[in-house]
Amino acid sequence: MKIIDISVPISSTMPVYKGDPPVSIARVASFDKGDNMTLSRLSMGAHTGTHLDAPLHFIPGGKTIEQLDLNVLIGPVRVLDLPAVQHQVSAADLDAANLPAGTQRVLFKTRNSALWAEPGFHEDFVGIGADAARWLVAHGVLLVGIDYLSIEVFGSHDYPAHKTLLGAGVIALEGVDLRNVAPGDYQLICLPIKLEGAEGAPARVVLTQA
Question: Which of 23, 24, 115, 126 would be 110's cystine partner, CB 3.0–4.6 Å?
């Protein structure tokens, strides 16, 4: 079985979404200091790197991270390559993609993937349009992932992608690294840190192929 890790490594130099807490990893004990162990302190936002959005992120009273259905987070997934999309994925893009009926998990590979090789946060990433979010809900998709730090187009003030998807109980997987992933069908294993009551959490995410 081939395993492909699509998680972004967490480090103090990684890009974070504009306005989110920076990542700080500090050694509070180390052999160099004469301690008998190595121990680190980690400080970061819940939406750092590869992470999941639970409905509570934008839906009052919505489910929290530990309440998400693990059956949705593990299972068949289609990686859809949309290299020509410049601003946002549209319903027309999805119509043209010919997703098989019954597809429940979709990861969008876009020009965003190249941004992981560049320093800092880039505002001009590809997001998911409002009509595409409605399309995904209408077609029974339960998990949507994208290859940068948000499904929402940067600068949005009404957050239609988040509100439409999370409002319908669709799980948003953000910040996956698809640079070395060919389009096609895989098995997804996506397990967030079990943060009680949280609206989001970092996750280790892998794809597998027989």
Answer: 126
Tell me how far apart the terminal alpha carbons of the chain are, to the nearest angstrom. 5
Tell me what pLDDT residue 105 has: 98
Q: What is the average pLDDT across 134-161? A: 97
Q: Strand 88-89 relative to strand 51-53: parallel, antiparallel, unpaired?
A: unpaired
pLDDT at site 32: 94
**Confidence check: pLDDT of 131 > 90:** yes
2-7+46-209 to CATH, choices 3.50.30.50, 3.40.190.10, 3.40.50.10610, 3.30.70.20: 3.50.30.50
- Structural domain boundaries of the chain? 2-7+46-209
| Cβ-contact 125, 87 below 8 angstroms | no
Residue 210 has pLDDT above 80, yes or no: no
Q: What is the pLDDT of residue 163?
A: 98
Residue-level pLDDT at 13 = 95
Burial annotation 24-47 (CB, 10 A radius, 16+ → b, else e): eeeeeeeeeeeeeeeeeeeebbbb
Are β-strands 127-128 and 88-89 bridged in parallel, bridged antiparallel, or unpaired?
Answer: parallel
The DSSP call for residue 174 is E
**Would you call 95 helix, strand, or coil by DSSP?**
helix
Q: Cα 160 to chain center, whole Å?
A: 17
The strand pairing partners of 106, in sequence order, are 78, 144
Give the active site residues: 57
